[in-house]
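hi! just following up on the protien thing from before. the input was this:
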Amino acid sequence: MKVNLAGFNVDTKVLRDIEAKAGKREDLTPEVISASYARISRDPRPINEIRKDARDEVEKTRKLNSTIIFKMGHHSVAEHAVFNLDILGVSRLAMEELEKFRLCSYTEKSQRYITLDNDFILPEEIKNSNLENLFIETISKQNKAYFKLLEKLKLYVFAENAELAKNPKNHNLLEGWAKEDARYITSLSTEAQVGQTINARNLELLLRRFASHPLQEIKLLGRAIYEQVSEVAPSIIIFHEANDRDQNTFSELKKITEKILATAAAYSPDEKSQDVRLVEYTKDGDNIIAASILHVSSNLPYEQCLSIVKNLTEQDKKNIFRTTCKNMQFYDSMPREFEYVNLTFNIALSSACFGQLKRHRMSTITAQPYYPGLGITIPESIKNIGMEDYFKDIIHKTNDAYNTIYKNIPLVAPYILTNAHRKRVLIRVSARELYHISRLREDSHAQWDIRNVSASMSQQAKQVMPLTFSLIGAKDKYNEIYKKVYNQLPNITEVVLPGTKKIK
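and the predicted 3d structure came back as:
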């Protein structure tokens, strides 16, 4: 056995410093690894020798990449080339478009931990129009409200948590709680920044989607990214321009939808609907997972396993799940067999909450545009400090501005909406992914908005698949949940989460 470290992420400033000292090098490109790995299937030589050839003949390497990707259609080789991108000065609205791509990694500037300033993005479509002043004035009112609320919320949070406040080490935590609620009044045009790690195949898709996007900010962001990567990896970013599929499909679907709704029975948006609704799920889910567990533990076809499970007693089924999960700890993922059942939820949630839910990229998430008719989410702390009417007044002014902008430039109207405004999201998760969401988002350290949504998802899931979701819940409650199921604590060595008490 032999393992070579073929490469790793290096800051481009380090690479440039090396070039400055040692001279220009053509082989400082991820295309080398991409092309050399592409040749593994047909070249009998050791991989390290293939990579050496790729480094020595970069132009030949680039031609090989183009041939393999373009002519032969093996796009997967582009996944071996990885980029780290600093993305600054984009709006929160644009960030939602950027983070739609699931096979990437993101770390975003958090509005929960960082005090916001007055930075915001003025959409290109509004610049130099008769709506520019209205837009800026509305953002100014929102930002002024943010600081006003923040000061009052700090006093409130420190008073409500007097014991924690006695220790200066907790002050940043308490201020963070104030910030995370004050931010609900800030707009989707607020500046954000993110560190993104993305392979070339997904980057090509991103660039194509961005080039086809109707918003100017997204188009400009795509061009800026392309300018950075095309110089160092021209052979693996090929299909990056706008195309009919990405440019026209959504608008055509919108037209046909409007036509269908115009001739259908009278419908109006259900603005009072339940915030979290389980709208579809795999029927017989407990049996399906139990059968898949028997399948992997035997040599029987799945159909026979399912037939056997259906004839088992409830106690026998329960024993299958108990045995499957009894050795798990709070940090363990559920077995992959839990991916054979799915649940679909329709959720009306705030922008602040969506910013966290969208991170669960192993789920399927589609969303409607933000819609003021769905109302807003107001933090309880805002009500407790007597600022609910003030908050609503800013929202009322925001909605008026939104309506004016929407009549003239509907595409950019959402920029003016706040983190409190809501949209509808359709999310489909496997049982395994819902466990992950629950463990992370129901934890006491999680933000209250996403905690409420996640708890509602878990509760409804447990009603339709009680065996499958017998252990679902927050990671800091895992020991308690486990004890209820097994009448004992998990067999671990003194694992106590920070801020929790050991259960005896």
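Residues 12-80 form one domain.
The first strand starts at residue 82 and ends at 91.
cheers
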